[in-house]
Every structure is written in C-alpha cells, then in structure tokens.
Design brief:
This protein has about 110 residues and is mostly beta strands. The protein has no helices and 11 strands. It has strands at about 1-5, 10, 20-25, 30-35, 45-50, 55, 65-70, 75-80, 90-95, 100-105, 105-110. Strands 2, 4, 5, 6, 9, 10 and 11 form a 7-stranded mixed β-sheet that branches. The chain has a 4-stranded antiparallel β-sheet with strand order 1-3-8-7, with no helix packed on it. Strand 7 and strand 8 (about 75-80) form a beta hairpin. The radius of gyration is 13 Å and the shape is globular. It starts with a strand and ends with a strand. The relative contact order is 0.33.
Length: about 110
Amino acid sequence: QVLLVESGGDSVQPGGSLRLSCLMTGNSVDVMRWFRQAPGGQRELVAEITKSGTTNYSDSVKGRFTISRDNVRNTMYLKMNSLKPEDTAVYYCNAARGPYQYWGQGTRVTVSS
C-alpha cells in the first residue's frame, strides 16, 4: 500500500513561484508523477521522474517547472516558477509500482492577479 499526501498549493500572482510537495509512505515506487486538472478540464500529466532521476515534462511547463525527488525523505517536489493563470488547477501526486497506480488527494494552485 502506498499513501500520497500533497501540500504547498496556494494562491499567487502571475509570475510568482510555488513549491509543491508529495510525501509518500508505504512501499517503494518506480515512477512518480505530477498531474493537474483545471476547472472543467481533464487531468493532464505535468511532469514525471523515475527512481533514478530521469525526468520528463509537458511542453506547457518545460523551462518553468522542475520536478525532483528525495528518495531518503520519500518526498517528491514540483518547483513552479513564472506561474501563469493557465497553471491554475488542482495538482495531484501519482505513483506507480508495477501495475498499480496510487493518487493523492490534490492540492489547489490558483494563479490570478
């Protein structure tokens, strides 16, 4: 069993920064991902990181967001810079272990002036 708890969501102005955290408890996992779901939209992949540290980003956040992972603290991070109103969404932590997928409850990010 894997439990994921996100934190760090907040309201910020355009151009601002936030850092999201995802604390994982339970069995070790392979790939960890951040997804987001905007109001009225579908859940989309933002970034992912393997256990060895290989990363991938969606084109919409490349160059602005950085995903990282601390395997000792069992925590994944998403550093978000140069935030835009279109980044407004609920951000979800996801972890994969073999055929199993685990999700956190989400943390809300609002970017507005």
